[in-house]
Amino acid sequence: MAKMILSMDGLVLKEIPLTKERMTIGRKAHNDIQIDNLAISGEHAAIVTILNDSFLEDLNSTNGTLVNGQAIKKHFLKNNDVVELGKYKLKYIAEQASPVADAADFEKTMVLRPNMTRPAPAPAPAAEAAAAPIAPGVSTAPPVPSAPKTFGDTQAGIPAPAAAPATGAAEAPAALAAAIQILNGANAGRELELTKTLTTLGKPGVQVAVIAKRPHGYFVTHVEGAQFPIVNGKTLDAQAHQLVDHDVIEIAGIKMEFFLKT
Q1: Each residue of 23-58: pLDDT tens digit?
Q2: DSSP 8-state symbol, 225
Q3: For residue 99, how many other CB atoms are within 10 A of its CB?
Q4: Is the separation of the CB atoms in 34 and 42 below 8 Å?
Q5: Residue 152, C-beta contacts closer than 8 angstroms, at least 6 positions apart
Q6: N- to C-terminal Cα separation, the chain
Q7: pTM
């Protein structure tokens, strides 16, 4: 799990594990990382963590946010990055640092194949029952069933029936492959399979979002840009939003449909 190490003038004050998807930094008490200093804005910055990746965003603070001495608005955090807030420093430590997804424009992010749909495997032929040899004088007629002996509610000699599968339980979305299909623009009709744990979509400097594949489904999260992603005509907030089959997503003016593949 990634963490931030807060220090001032070389003295380590505390370590903060990044346990939440979005953690705010600021002077006010409601922040996840509170720094009670007048040089720090009430809500100064935020850290968005998606799986093993973390993004830092300055929340229009008065005195700004520096990373490794450079002023930033949005920054993908790398192991040992040092965030400077006034006299305070936050060092980012990632136990499993992973490279940022390809940050090219949307078209370069696309990996397209002519036929993305895989045919369902043919059912295996039924195994032939092995014929057991019949000893001379042994009748092959089925035995006449006798009344079973009962002990309470259990019948002796009769195997218990297999438990019936639960009905109405939906298959976990992450167990299914998923893809997005482009609905407008030059790439309309093309598909991108969501095979990676983290898929970056959008145009850097304009709007960027990521779709994360998790054990219980697929989630879209805003990363960069003044505009937030739109799903089914509704603008999202900073929190991760779980996608469902046939959701229509709009990022950087590109509309795409999310769908599960069976």
Answers
A1: 999 999 999 999 988 999 999 999 988 777 888 999
A2: S
A3: 9
A4: no
A5: none
A6: 33
A7: 0.44
